[in-house]
Write a structure and sequence with these properties.
By secondary structure, the chain is mainly beta. It has strands at about 5, 10-15, 20-25, 35-40, 45-50, 60, 70-75, 80-85, 90-100, 110, 115-120.
Length: about 120
């Protein structure tokens, strides 16, 4: 079975940075769509960043463009989210996700457990 394990979330001050990691086990994901979502308290889960490993096309939520970078190490089956210039509005539980086809939120096959990112002002 495919499993995702996210880690790296922590408390950080506004303007700071951190990197989230997500290890995918049970399958290679070199041709997957992979990405990150987040959910703040009382809010709906929203897409943050994604990449198609088939063609390299990336997606970033407008509010994180220029600050966040998604990447992967296929040999390690690990995806990353580098987050720079963090803002309090980035505070949320971050979830990694993977799908062999596309990251359609309602039909994503595999989710990580989530890791808390808290940005203090």
């Amino acid at each position: 079975d495919v499993q995702l394990q996210a880690c790296g979330g922590r408390l950080v001050q506004a303007g700071g940075y951190q990197r989230l990691s997500c290890v995918v086990s049970g399958s290679t994901f070199d041709d997957y769509a992979i990405g990150w979502f987040r959910q703040a308290p009382g809010k709906e889960r929203e897409g943050v960043a994604a990449i198609s490993l088939k063609d390299g096309i990336t997606y970033y939520r407008d509010s994180v463009k220029g600050r966040f970078t998604i990447s992967s190490d296929n040999a390690k089956n690990t995806m990353y989210l580098q987050m720079n210039g963090l803002e309090p509005e980035d505070t949320a539980v971050y979830y990694c996700a993977a799908d062999p086809e596309a990251l359609v939120p309602s039909a994503i096959d595999y989710w990580g457990q989530g890791t808390q990112v808290t940005v203090s002002s």
